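Quick one: structure for this chain?
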Amino acid sequence: MWWTFGWPYETSAAMARLVFSGIMDRLPQLKLLAHHMGAMVPYFEGRVGPGWDQLGKRTSDEDLTLVLKGLKRRPFDYFKDFYADTAVFGSRAATLCGLEFYGADKVLFASDSPFDPEKGVGYIRDTISVLNSIDLSMEDRVKICYRNAGKLFGLSGK
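Got it. Here's what it folds into:
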């Protein structure tokens, strides 16, 4: 149904609204976690990067270059500041794409429960299988599986 594409689109659009609103400049300590491995952003890295560097160059009815001038950094750099979770229903390609974009320091394990038809078991198992199939150091696995969440949410423990 619509949510298969709708949720990632809405997440990506919300991320863009946050970036272009300037809130990340006003609140530089703000930490944001984007569901579904950062939604469409890693896949559209070229449009998020060089594409939005050109914002306003092809419009004649509104001067969108003012939006870029209102930001302290490139839009691309703000998107790299987001955290992302692994809830991509066990998609290896999406996981690899997201890990390449965000890096192991910005990815948190997630299950997408309760939307799993197996009530949390299937997507967790699939996500673990995907992570096990990727050439990651043990340090990066530990970060993704729990350490990044602990750090992001201010939880104590090693």
